[in-house]
Amino acid sequence: MSDFELTKEQLPVHIGIIMDGNGRWAKKRRLPRTAGHTQGAKVFKRTVQDCRKLGIKNATFYAFSTENWKRPREEVEAIMKLLIQYLDDIKAFSKENVRIIFPGDKSVFPDNIKNRLIEIEQTSLNNDGFNLLVALNYGGRDEIVNAAKNIAKDYKEGIIGDIDSISEQQFENYLYTKGIPNVDLMVRPSGEMRLSNFLIWQCAYAEFVFMDVLWPDFTMEDLTFACREYAKRNRRFGGV
């Protein structure tokens, strides 16, 4: 086995990636922050293919959080324009048997973006070669609160008969990631060492790899390094 080969059993089934460091990457080069986001979007597209080459079946990318609306208006507007530009590229993955999911609250987006997100999800719904999740207007706490509200609604309407019968597995059916395995490996470039409200339910037993590389500089070698670090971990899930 070469330095870059991993067996199927060694690979994470679901990898989460926090795409962090776009602004700092641009600042280091005396470029506008938007240049960092543009380069980061290119790296995202390549990394999706790298995940598939390695044999990973599920990948969730943190693209835009519920907190990111607090950024300067000009930067948020630029990100929205970039999102519109790259939705066609994301949709193109559906032709490669990729299912595309956009976890998060879509209701806040303009209709042209919201309708496009829904259309892409529906178009790729039956694809089963790879699950690509791009988190937009996503927050882990918001997701859990939203799930609790929907459970309460279903209980009130009689869809749920016995509230005491709700299990963790049933609760997961109310999350944005319904039907997707929980996260095995969470990768965060940029040198930061926190989860930042990303997939906090799904990461209950995830392994974390923090890397001192800015997202626009992230490579296949970095992805492979993270997977090899994951393969070294002894995952006991509370056991011995």
What does this structure look like?
There is one protein chain. The chain starts with 13 loop residues before the first strand and ends in an 8-residue tail after the last helix. The protein has 7 helices and 6 strands; from the N terminus they run E-H-H-E-H-E-H-E-H-H-E-E-H. Strand 3, helix 4 and strand 4 form a beta-alpha-beta unit. The protein is of the alpha/beta class and 240 residues long. The protein has one domain: 3-Layer(aba) Sandwich (Undecaprenyl pyrophosphate synthetase), CATH 3.40.1180.10.
Structural class by sheet pairing and helices = alpha/beta
Q: Do you know the CATH topology?
A: Undecaprenyl pyrophosphate synthetase
Largest sheet features: 6 strands, parallel
Distance between the termini: 29 Å
CA-based gyration radius? 18 Å
CATH class: Alpha Beta
* The named CATH superfamily: Decaprenyl diphosphate synthase-like
Helix content: 40-55%
Considering the chains and any ligands shown, give keywords for the structure:
240 residues, Undecaprenyl pyrophosphate synthetase, six-stranded parallel beta sheet, 7 helices
SSE inventory with pairings:
Layout: E1 14-18, H1 22-28, H2 33-54, E2 58-65, H3 73-92, E3 98-101, H4 111-123, E4 130-138, H5 140-156, H6 168-172, E5 185-188, E6 207-210, H7 220-232
Parallel strand pairs: 1-2, 1-5, 2-4, 3-4, 5-6
Helix pairs in contact: 1-2, 2-3, 3-4
